[in-house]
Design brief:
Layout lengths: L3 H8 L1 H23 L4 H9 L7 H17 L8
């Protein structure tokens, strides 16, 4: 089965722009969820793992983005 990433890389610059846009959109969603305090495992389970249209490398890149974003942007401390 062809993935979005593999298909885009085989079709040229316009398709690569589509892939880049898809990955950027997912990164923005990941960042928003982590900023709201959502757990990395939940983000992974709901946004990264189900992205079957992306290649394994693209999903691994999203996971690495999420992990590094969480490390550099700790969730806000909530007052009790």
């Amino acid at each position: 089965m062809a993935t979005l990433g593999r298909a885009c890389r085989q079709r040229g610059p316009f398709a690569n722009q589509l892939l880049a846009r898809e990955l950027l959109d997912r990164q923005l969603e990941i960042a928003a969820r982590l900023d709201s305090g959502e757990d990395l495992r939940t983000v992974e389970a709901e946004l990264i793992d189900p992205a079957a249209e992306l290649s394994d490398d693209d999903r691994a890149g999203l996971w690495l983005f999420a992990w590094s974003y969480r490390e550099s942007h700790p969730p806000p401390v909530r007052a009790n």
